[in-house]
């Protein structure tokens, strides 16, 4: 960094209210006292002023007490204007508290932590809550944890030898890589369905690619470069009819927690993978797979580890003996800390609907659709081009705004404390992605669009 960059970085940190990294301070500590000071709790500075002002203006803004109280659970959202939950969700007070408790338990119980610290229970809670998150249940299906979605996708595909896999060009990069690796490993055939200029993939085009030899239809529920929402019920029905033995593999990373998914109702051929760091706001490590029960008898993963054994604590040697449930896809020691974080965040989310996660996701869809509509209206008013001419009902929780000087505008917004992100198309041309979230408000979306329009106008003068 040169001197100018250091000044800019310092300004940015001040604007967004970023706290210095606790870990950096810990690593720099020279004494036990220094370490103690670094460890002192101050991870997320609470921005009391925006919360107070918002309450004062609640009448004028049409905000209810219930919405305000829910929002107060997310102090990180008030360190500026946060419109980047499609990329990295900001946690509530609950996830970090759950992680802190998890770590305290190791200190308190030592080896007893599996039972006395309730880790075994926590893993079951994870299975139950994740099943509910995707509209499944533990009778029809089961849940396996993974450190990320790529591992979950790979683990499922490893069990499918050859045949044809259909996917769309709009899939996230990791899907492309995993699909190609699968084809290379198994000699399977890939059919890539093209994306239209506006970033959508017509459902009929995907359905037309479903020939009888198809064994997997792998889709991204929302396309990351356009926000286009796939018609899951139509695709599930078409696949069942045309390829009755095929699997629909849904990457729900961009939708989990903000768009209801009804996995059990979609059929026993629908699997869902995702992980927690976007609208679920739970940081890294909380990946998962929901898979209907019938697949556990036939899909044999290529990887293994001691937690893949049907009774890990029996410490049996020799080849692994797997059960026919979600444990079939496990490998080594579970990611308990990440699971605690996601459970904390799901608990926070559920408070927006009286403790029902299912109802909370429906509410989140209503809230984020209204925020997306606000963005569409504001962009139309400011003369900003949005990728795709579709309504909010055909989008996930974000819109892509077309800009010329993307990196510069993105940086200028960050200096103002406004967080969005940029996906390039060609050079500096591309899309600023702007999202709502379940605890967001329309005035925030208005402010983001106004700032983008101002930055764009400033550059075209
Ligand atoms: C649709 C989608 N799938 C997958 C991923 C990432 O997967 P992983 O958990 O393996 O990093 C992302 C982005 O981070 C995504 O947007």
Describe the 3D structure.
With 461 residues, this protein is an alpha/beta fold. The chain has 2 domains: 3-91 and 356-460, Aspartate Aminotransferase, domain 1 (Alpha-Beta Complex), CATH 3.90.1150.10; 98-350, 3-Layer(aba) Sandwich (Aspartate Aminotransferase, domain 2). The chain is 42% helix and 14% strand. The chain contains 17 helices and 12 strands. Strands 2-8-7-6-5-3-4 form a 7-stranded mixed sheet, with helices on both faces. A 3-stranded antiparallel sheet has the order 9-12-11, covered by helices on one side. Strands 1-10 form a two-stranded parallel sheet. Strand 5 (214-220), helix 12 and strand 6 form a beta-alpha-beta unit. The longest helix has 26 residues, at 357-382. The chain is globular. Bound molecules: pyridoxal-5'-phosphate. The site of pyridoxal-5'-phosphate has 12 residues, from helix 9.
């Amino acid at each position: 960094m040169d001197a100018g960059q250091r000044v800019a970085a310092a300004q940015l940190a001040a604007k967004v209210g970023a706290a210095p990294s606790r870990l950096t301070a810990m690593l720099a500590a020279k004494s036990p006292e220094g370490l103690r000071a670094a460890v002192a709790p101050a991870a997320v500075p609470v921005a009391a002023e925006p919360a107070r002002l918002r309450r004062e203006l609640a009448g004028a803004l049409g905000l209810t007490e219930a919405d305000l109280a829910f929002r107060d659970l997310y102090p990180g959202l008030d360190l500026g204007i946060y419109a980047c939950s499609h990329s990295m969700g900001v946690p509530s007070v609950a996830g970090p508290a759950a992680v802190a408790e998890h770590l305290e338990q190791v200190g308190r119980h030592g080896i007893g932590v599996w039972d006395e610290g309730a880790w075994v229970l926590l893993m079951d809670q994870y299975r139950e809550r994740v099943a509910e998150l995707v509209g499944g249940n533990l009778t029809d299906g089961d849940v396996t944890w993974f450190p990320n979605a790529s591992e979950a996708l790979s683990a499922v595909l490893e069990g499918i030898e050859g045949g044809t896999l259909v996917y769309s060009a709009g899939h996230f990069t990791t899907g492309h890589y995993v699909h190609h690796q699968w084809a290379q490993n198994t000699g399977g055939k890939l059919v890539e369905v093209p994306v239209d200029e506006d970033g959508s993939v017509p459902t009929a085009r995907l359905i037309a690619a479903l020939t009888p030899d198809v064994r997997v239809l792998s889709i991204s529920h929302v396309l990351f470069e356009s926000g286009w929402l796939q018609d899951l019920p139509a695709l599930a029905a078409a696949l069942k009819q045309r390829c009755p033995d095929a699997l629909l593999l849904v990457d729900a990373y961009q939708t989990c927690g903000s768009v209801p998914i009804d996995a059990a109702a979609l059929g026993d051929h629908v699997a869902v993978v995702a992980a927690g760091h976007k609208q679920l706001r739970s940081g890294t490590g909380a990946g998962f797979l929901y898979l209907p029960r019938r697949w556990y008898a036939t899909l044999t993963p290529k990887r293994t580890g001691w937690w893949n054994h049907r009774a890990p604590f029996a410490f049996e040697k020799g080849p692994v003996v797997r059960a026919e449930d979600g444990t079939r896809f496990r490998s080594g020691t579970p990611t308990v800390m990440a699971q605690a974080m996601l459970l904390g965040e799901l608990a926070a989310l559920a408070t927006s609907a009286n403790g029902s996660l299912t109802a909370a996701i429906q509410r989140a869809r209503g809230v984020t659709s209204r925020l997306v509509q606000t963005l569409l209206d504001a962009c139309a008013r400011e003369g900003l081009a949005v990728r795709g001419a579709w309504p909010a009902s055909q989008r996930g929780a974000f819109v892509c705004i077309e800009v010329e000087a993307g990196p510069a505008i993105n940086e200028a917004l960050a200096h103002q404390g406004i967080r969005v992100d940029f996906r390039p198309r060609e050079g500096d041309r591309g899309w600023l992605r702007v999202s709502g979230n379940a605890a967001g408000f329309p005035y925030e979306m208005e402010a983001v669009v106004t700032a983008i329009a101002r930055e764009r106008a400033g550059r075209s003068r």
